[in-house]
Amino acid sequence: MQRIDRTKHLERCRRAKAEFEWRGVCIGEWAREHNFCPQTVYDVLNGRIMGRRGEAHRVAVALGIKEGATA
What we know:
This protein is mainly alpha-helical and 71 residues long. Helix content is 61%, strand content 0%. The protein has helices spanning 6-23, 27-33, 38-45, 54-63. α3 (38-45) crosses α4 (54-63). InterPro entries: BcepMu_gp16 (IPR026365).
């Protein structure tokens, strides 16, 4: 399994949040449109959850924070 570099992960999170701001998109609205729990999306974007499995993994992949496959 590949080790996640926390510094790089947090930088990707920062870029993803900046993209929401640049596009003028509400994070909660984006989460609901993509059938994600808004709190999970906020937790991933703020680096509280790394997105290793489950919904957090799917969120991280959808946001481009992490590479991976979703079922």
